[in-house]
Design a protein that fits this description.
Length: 186
């Protein structure tokens, strides 16, 4: 089976030998990947010390009926900027459709809608994003740094964060216990 050239709408998984500690056991919801570069939101690790309610209060927004969910470390780029990866049943100003699977919104209207109980059915809030320049992610894929699997609602929204990386590999038919931390080329 041939892998798709671009990974928009997939989950990008850090291989066990990932040398950058910021991406250890990373699960990244790929929101855009084309010949010009790539952008994804990390959904594999929580941010320590702040939750959705805390963020909303910092932004002078009423949390209302929103559950006080943990925030995700979206990536090392712009860690003070918020993003919401959400189901496609809600669309607001600046929402981006991701391969017909989910949406990405980075404007405050999505947080207001969540607080008012009229937002998307499923969502994850993150700080920062992971970004790659033209060809950079492609090179990292060739160097066995990453593995891509189809992004599903279950993996994205329903899987407990502590099990998401392992479950995502399993969805691609891979038992992570059998993966080596070193790679080679035949």
């Amino acid at each position: 089976m041939e892998s798709p050239r671009f990974l928009t709408g997939q989950l990008l998984l850090a291989m066990p030998g990932m040398t950058d500690p910021r991406f250890e056991r990373a699960v990244i919801a790929m929101c855009n990947h084309d010949e010009e570069g790539a952008l994804g939101i990390g959904i594999g690790h929580h941010v320590a010390g702040i939750t959705l309610h805390g963020l909303m209060r910092q932004l002078d927004l009423d949390p209302g009926v929103a559950p006080d969910a943990p925030l995700f470390m979206g990536g090392p780029v712009e860690p003070n900027r918020g993003f919401v990866v959400h189901s496609d049943d809600w669309e607001g100003e600046g929402s981006i459709d991701v391969a017909g699977l989910w949406r990405l919104t980075s404007t405050l209207d999505v947080l207001r809608a969540i607080g008012e109980g009229r937002g998307p059915r499923k969502w994850l809030a993150a700080l920062g994003y992971a970004g790659w320049g033209a060809g950079q992610l492609d090179d990292e894929l060739l160097s066995n740094g990453w593995f891509g699997v189809p992004g599903t609602d279950t993996l994205l929204f329903d899987r407990e964060v502590g099990h998401r990386w392992t479950a995502a590999f399993a969805s691609g038919g891979i038992d992570v216990r059998l993966l080596s931390t070193t790679s080679g080329h035949a």
